[in-house]
């Protein structure tokens, strides 16, 4: 590959100022968790879809592989270059416009580089709700959210990013533009190409824009924090919440005692409720389209039934939006508290909700038995069966030495337990490069063959984010 000729072509397409080859490029080449850092031939920052298409055509001509990147907040090392120095990072951050908002159709069309929080605020200013919500919403982008099929805290009601998307615009691996930005909710005209690209982590093409669903703003949104005696009690409370709140149940998060102890230790100003006295706490959100009075009546009915059933030991209902925000901030601060505590192993698994208590009990016991000093940070989106079953290195020990010695064993124990309970080793973070070598052990050979056939058909040169999702080795 003639690097100088490719760089010249790229500068002619997007302008020399937007082809970065020198200086500190770590914001583009190092992943958010600092697990990996690569070296890019160049970071290219196109301004529009036509420039993206021209960049892809240039890379295809020169045989250069492309790493599409949004906010670079991913947790599976799927959006940074390798160490070869030959890959082009295609940053979509300049493409951040809101193209259209259609109130009657309840849709908003945005470019891939649009920050999630900006989309939320634009929708709210127009009187609507865009419900995708996650800790990185101040820096993650819609393109990245769709590329990984992000989940977040309101999946229990609204679904993952895939369920919130009606149409996408894509630049193919050949540099052609597919305009699939339909706002239709019904379209039976062949294969669902939209869903093929969503969740593909940039391995099939580049998502450049999307048409997303909007919802009416709720009249009231209430949050409750409840202490529960066990994971089974949390699952029982979830069942009662579905019964009492119906479609108003928009969030249901679970947090173990150790995860909350880390928040209390590193962010004591947040004043975590109940954590010292109970093994688990649950955060429940009720969005009501009638009134705050109606929402509180529903919540009171739920908590009375839960206390009577013995699945709640104590509870508080936020008295203001500020208090509710603080409760959610506690939950969202667990990853930050983990980082302050030191190195850790992050898991993003899903298990059928009915089997989560058995999964947690068995996996906790296996890890505690086999891994000296292990500390378990167990929290996540119980409402949709997605747990962040994380492992903190032992207190006071050499964390890097521990990881070198035990990380593979920990992953094997957790993933084997997930498989036993008919779950998935990735719920919302994607496969990236971190789990690409693990996937063949937990995905059927038939499924992997079909995935490889799709990859080969859409990206015959293999230039789109190679080595992510699917191993380059068959």
TrEMBL record:
Entry keyword set: FAD, Flavoprotein
Name of a matching Pfam family: FAD-oxidase_C
Transmembrane intervals: none
Domain (FAD-binding PCMH-type): residue spans on this chain: 36-217
Presence of the UniProt keyword Ribonucleoprotein in the record: no
Alphabetical list of SUPFAM superfamilies matching this protein: FAD-binding/transporter-associated domain-like, FAD-linked oxidases, C-terminal domain
Annotated InterPro entries: FAD-bd_oxidored_4_C (IPR004113), FAD-bd_PCMH (IPR016166), FAD-bd_PCMH-like_sf (IPR036318), FAD-bd_PCMH_sub1 (IPR016167), FAD-bd_PCMH_sub2 (IPR016169), FAD-linked_Oxase-like_C (IPR016164), FAD-oxidored/transferase_4 (IPR051264), Oxid_FAD_bind_N (IPR006094)
Family: Belongs to the FAD-binding oxidoreductase/transferase type 4 family.
Protein name (Swiss-Prot/TrEMBL): FAD/FMN-containing dehydrogenase
């Amino acid at each position: 590959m003639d690097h100088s000729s490719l760089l010249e072509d790229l500068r002619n397409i997007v302008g020399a100022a937007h082809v970065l080859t020198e200086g500190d490029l770590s914001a583009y080449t190092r992943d958010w968790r600092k697990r990996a850092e690569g070296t890019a031939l160049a970071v290219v920052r196109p301004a529009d879809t036509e420039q993206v298409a021209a960049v892809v055509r240039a890379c295809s001509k020169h045989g250069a592989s492309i790493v599409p990147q949004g906010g670079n907040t991913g947790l599976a090392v799927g959006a940074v270059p390798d160490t070869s120095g030959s890959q082009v990072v295609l940053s979509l951050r300049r493409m951040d416009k809101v193209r259209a908002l259609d109130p009657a159709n309840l849709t908003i069309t945005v470019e891939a580089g649009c920050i999630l929080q900006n989309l939320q605020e634009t929708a709210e200013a127009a009187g609507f709700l865009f419900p995708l919500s996650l800790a990185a919403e101040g820096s993650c982008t819609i393109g990245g959210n769709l590329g990984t099929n992000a989940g977040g805290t309101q999946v229990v009601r609204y679904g993952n990013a895939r369920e919130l998307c009606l149409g996408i615009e894509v630049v193919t691996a050949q540099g052609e533009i597919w305009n699939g930005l339909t706002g239709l909710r019904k379209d039976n005209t062949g294969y669902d190409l939209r869903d093929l690209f969503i969740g593909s982590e940039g391995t099939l093409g580049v998502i450049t824009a999307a048409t997303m669903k909007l919802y009416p703003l709720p009249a009231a949104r209430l949050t409750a924090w409840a202490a529960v005696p066990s994971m089974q009690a949390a699952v029982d409370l979830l069942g009662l919440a579905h019964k009492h709140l119906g479609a108003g149940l928009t969030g249901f998060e679970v947090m173990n005692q150790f995860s909350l102890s880390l928040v209390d230790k590193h962010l004591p100003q947040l004043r975590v409720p109940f954590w010292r006295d109970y093994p688990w706490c649950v955060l429940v959100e009720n969005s009501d389209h009638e009134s705050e009075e109606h929402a509180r009546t529903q919540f009171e009915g739920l908590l009375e039934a839960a206390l009577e059933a013995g699945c709640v030991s104590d509870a508080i209902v936020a008295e203001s939006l500020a208090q509710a925000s603080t409760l959610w901030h506690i939950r969202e601060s667990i990853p930050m508290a983990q980082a302050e505590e030191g190195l850790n192993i992050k898991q993003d698994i899903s298990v059928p909700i009915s089997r989560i208590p058995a999964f947690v009990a068995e996996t906790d016991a296996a890890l505690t038995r086999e891994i000296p000093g292990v500390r378990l940070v167990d929290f996540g989106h119980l409402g949709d069966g997605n747990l962040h079953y994380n492992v903190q290195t032992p207190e006071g020990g050499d964390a890097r030495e521990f990881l070198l010695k035990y990380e593979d064993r920990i992953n094997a124990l957790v993933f084997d337990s997930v498989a036993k309970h008919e779950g998935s080793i990735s719920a919302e973070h994607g496969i990236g490069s971190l789990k690409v070598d693990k996937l063949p052990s937990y995905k059927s050979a038939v499924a992997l063959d079909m995935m490889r056939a799709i990859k080969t058909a859409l990206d015959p040169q293999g230039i789109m984010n190679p080595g992510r999702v699917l191993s380059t080795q068959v």
